[in-house]
Fold these 2 entries.
Entry 1:
Amino acid sequence: MEISARKKKILAAVVEEYIRTAEPVGSKSIAQTAGLGCSPATIRNELAELVNMGYLEQPHTSAGRVPTPMGYRMYVNELMEQQKLSLEETEEINRRLNQKLQQLDDTISDVSRLASQLTDYPALALTAQSSVTAKRFDLIYVDANTFIIVLMLSSNSVKSKLVHLPLSVDQNMVQRLASLFNAGFTGLTADQITPLLIHSTERAADDTMGLTSVVAAFLIETLTEANTPTAFISGENRLLNQPEFKDPEKAHKLMSYLSGGGYILPSGQEESMVSAGEVRVLIGPENVAEELKDSSVIIASYDAGDNTRGLIGVVGPTRMDYSAVAAKLSFLAAGLSKRLGGGEAPPEGMHNKLIIKGDDPNEHGG
Amino acid sequence: MEISARKKKILAAVVEEYIRTAEPVGSKSIAQTAGLGCSPATIRNELAELVNMGYLEQPHTSAGRVPTPMGYRMYVNELMEQQKLSLEETEEINRRLNQKLQQLDDTISDVSRLASQLTDYPALALTAQSSVTAKRFDLIYVDANTFIIVLMLSSNSVKSKLVHLPLSVDQNMVQRLASLFNAGFTGLTADQITPLLIHSTERAADDTMGLTSVVAAFLIETLTEANTPTAFISGENRLLNQPEFKDPEKAHKLMSYLSGGGYILPSGQEESMVSAGEVRVLIGPENVAEELKDSSVIIASYDAGDNTRGLIGVVGPTRMDYSAVAAKLSFLAAGLSKRLGGGEAPPEGMHNKLIIKGDDPNEHGG
DNA sequence: GTTGGCACTCTTTCCTTACGAGTGCTAATA
DNA sequence: TATTAGCACTCGTAAGGAAAGAGTGCCAAC
């Protein structure tokens, strides 16, 4: 059965009213606000059908209607209007991005904080999983017992570490080692750096002091860290703003799930699930994690340069302001991409052309 | 009026029972548990006097007794038994410290997370405010448009940054600049680096491309960052475990205060308030921040090396397990000091000799 | 297809009552 | 003088019940 235009209007009205008030929506208030010239009784008939179709439900017989996940899904896919951010909002976001943005590592936490502040929901930011390799080694001789490892990565970031040794370092050896590493270890991923390779380098450098393994260990650690996507969550406490979490039990469960680095997306699929410039919405039971079955997640991806993508997302009750949050995240992601990504800058006003993708492709007419 | 030995015993029993159950404590339960051979009626008389003296209060006429902040203070200063950590606990802490500890920057968040997990309260970690200066500069020429700044600080950490320039870099210039910076900028604090100094260096290096100011900017930024104490708070959500925060309003207020980097100690006095090896307890109204007047804070300081100290602290309701938390924090701080500080390692079993200092020196007999 | 009317349902709120934990006081006791 | 038993009293909390109110479903009329 196809859903009529009026039903759509009514459904949208219910969803929006419910998002606003968190109270079941009655026929009367719809008749007043939705602006379609008909009486509460008519609305009631339509509502009853929407319940039958699975878009709405009643908490109990004499209550108003509440959207089901399916109702939200319909709303997000077809009914929701793209929300435009006000000039002040876009300026605010840009200002804060410019203020903070130097290196992704430092900002991943700032980004999640910003997203949380903007939306008033808990927010998370994920760095992209990429395959970073070493591009260049420098070893700086400081004194007889000390040298500095400087490691430039394919992602064009630089990592460094001060190494103290109990033994005296030979300055020639340090230089020899740097050349050997530049020759043999650049372009390798962490798991291509085998003990065998290290060992043969050690011999080639005539290294009896274990310098080679120190440098190699730092390299492996750095690469592993750079390739491990890290998540940062902030603003968990904002859940408490939402009436659905007035029960501390419930709030605590979700908050500790989030704080504990609880994964939002099926691991390994993070970036692949959201393509660039698009915002994905996971509603209630569409989430994989048991703890999120009553909540919704909105995720945008950003281009972190180097052909990798990261994610920013927001978690809230299913009764979430999808439109506003999607718009904000989309703009934020675009701003991040512009600043981090090497690639083409998103066009001005890009946040208006926001593409929202549902979870289940069957459900939205393509 | 001096407080009798029996009153002390009774007060301690009330505090401990209340900490355990979060329910007002009646005379009967004390008579049973406290093991002083007297009847509830006797206890009642004593309790009434303890109320008069200000150590206890009654929520209402027919309820049991609850400690006042003054009662907690007395308990912390004089009555509380030093809690020893079990072998498993100390081993667990040591294990996790060893696992994580490489550089303070990376671990400040880990430390606060660890403290929070151990105590099941929100925890914060503060880096020490110190006066870090530059110790050594290296500039690595990468290609015509790129070089790397490597900056070694007096704290013996190393910071580095990749710099891209629109103009071609002259390799000689890069080296000249490094020498000039090593000669003129080491040992200076951020505010000693004046535009004048930068300008004269620029001329001395014959730098027409603005390299000098790029390096100087990085230096200033790094020093400023290193000297700014950063706080990290985690586990805010654990507040929800406590029955006193079953009201989401209340919980949210405190949590957002904490998340917002709310300051626990009067700013500027952070380290000076807690001396090494000692644990400080701030009970309820002893706190300066309005938001903390109903809560208690337990703080330990650790030696971060380089004559600087940092803090780890825990926030909870006044009904807090002072003894256990103090023991854990103390051990944690000692462990951190041992690993970070240059100084003498704390003696084995140091957590047994824990010194607890109250807020107000007048209140505990010296 | 739409609407007004009306009986019905079910939650929420408020009030009252009963209960019980714990006290304070008094008088007896060691 | 300190302790104890006994008892009336207080006050918060839980339980029960009635009234209110919001919203529905359905029917008959338009």
Note: Chain A is about 40% helix and 15% strand.
Entry 2:
Amino acid sequence: MAASIEDVARLAGVSIATVSRSLRGLPDVATATRDKVLAAAQQLDYVASPFAARLASGRSSTFGVVVPFVHRWFFAEVLGAVEGVLRGAGYDLLLHNLGDSEGRERFFSVLPVRKRVDAVIVVSLALTADEVEALTSLELPVGVVGARFPGLSSVRIDDVAAARQAVDHLLSLGHRRIALIGGDTDDPMRFTPPHHRLIGYREALNAIEVPYDPALERLGYFTVGGGEAAMRELLELAERPTAVFAESDEMAYGAMRAIRRAGLRVGHDIAVIGFDDHSNADLMDLSTVRQPVAEQGALLTHAMLAALADDTEPTDTVLPTELVVRGSTVLERSVYKN
Amino acid sequence: MAASIEDVARLAGVSIATVSRSLRGLPDVATATRDKVLAAAQQLDYVASPFAARLASGRSSTFGVVVPFVHRWFFAEVLGAVEGVLRGAGYDLLLHNLGDSEGRERFFSVLPVRKRVDAVIVVSLALTADEVEALTSLELPVGVVGARFPGLSSVRIDDVAAARQAVDHLLSLGHRRIALIGGDTDDPMRFTPPHHRLIGYREALNAIEVPYDPALERLGYFTVGGGEAAMRELLELAERPTAVFAESDEMAYGAMRAIRRAGLRVGHDIAVIGFDDHSNADLMDLSTVRQPVAEQGALLTHAMLAALADDTEPTDTVLPTELVVRGSTVLERSVYKN
DNA sequence: CTGTTAGCGCCTTCAT
DNA sequence: ATGAAGGCGCTAACAG
């Protein structure tokens, strides 16, 4: 059997209370005593039972982290950053991957994090009022990456402004017939970004009085295949768009393929800009709006740890995005158009 | 405060032992009694404290899952599958993302899963003898995805055979000067695949007595950039390769870009085949050897759950791979070569 | 079929 | 600065 706190106490010749205090670095322990205890613990290869500690203290030193799909780039990237910060702070990470809307419902009705975490981090879900309420009922610090909700901490970007950055770029290149390939704003998994990026797109057009054409707004469902299908439809329009803004790089990849398969050249015949600066965007020579992904996760995690320590109010942080121009929105376009 | 088992017992008019039995679905409880208890529990919105249960029972209903980098496609994909199976079985998942070799060392020396999990799943690390020993010292079922070690359960593919599938395909198209872009077999994170895929590559050449040329074996470090750099070097050789086998699709993407940037055509001037059937391989029109990724994770998790239930011997399962031919290894190559 | 009673291993007052 | 002792909330014999 593994050593228990009593074994350590016996070997060090002190009480278990002193062992507990020494090992946790609490004050009011004589240095000599602490050293004796540390030596004994090391000799016995002692590790405290987290369950006993948690039961006795009421603290779990664990975060619950909820993601819609671990295997998608954005969520995996955020998760990695969150994990790193938690590990550094001595916290465990309990992963909850929703997977689909059924998994989502189960999570919010069962709330499997109950009685087992000190805080919860939710990544990029547009929570319903009921869901926010469910999370609030936990009476724990709750943080969100990628969206803001009353009463919850958050770190995010300004999706509306970022979408405008993208569309403004296309406008500045002279494009006026600009299509949108977006996410479903009625998606059962309800991400916030589609909604805001659509608004940004329309605002940008509106700002210089380019009338917006519903026929140019298509759904790409945040997948490569979806982006490709949407682009195919756009290419069949009587009056084809000269540029496309895709709400994610992955959809943009699909759009680029559709363009190439139609015998047209990306950037020359049709400009394409994406969103994210996904790890392959550079490879694909895709212009995009970069959002700091890992940073959002790390920053929120730090904020949550601070909240746990100081019992402070929820915070909301908005991080900047950055236009990244690559070959898919080349300037020489006019050369080929004329 | 949240309700405890005593509150439920009081409301149902039974002892806490009966509540425990009823809620866990143990036998020897009268149906009427069980119903009373369930009703009381529901009314109080009762959830058992996992820490108390774990302390008392000695079981944690938790798996530790170790991945080198969550944010990389393969690991994220496996993780998602593992999570799904565990969730379905009522298990929690404690995530450990190593990140770098420092994180790796820390994990294996500290073993932060001690006293908190029932089993450990390690994804695709070539463990050293010391590391296997450290895991074994936990005296828990340990499983590995993507490699095999004595005493540990595993689900994996045959990397040697899969690499041969890829190279045989190139050989069958008439290629004889075939380069390799591989992972570092001395990588501090020590994945097994590079080693085996290199062997498969050499075996395939050997089988038809094509002499293997060390100048054609380059390191791509499993990144797009690494693959591109490796390909650039290969293109500068006096006697250029006519085909390339990359040990991962991501490296193949980089190689394809290098080929295009050199003004050559992928598939026509130089054939490229990757490995994995990464989610973008279809998009890139890249031929590859598909390995079942999520399946490996799910299968191993089921095996581990079974091992926990039956206390059976470690198992080893090898899943098949499949050649997927796309445009990057087109047959019409000869048309252009002649 | 149900209740009683020890623990599980640690944290945390409260004394000293 | 240290020790004694009572929980934390549940499980698991053991009785009955």
Note: Chain B has three domains: 5-57, 62-157+293-320, 159-291+324-333.
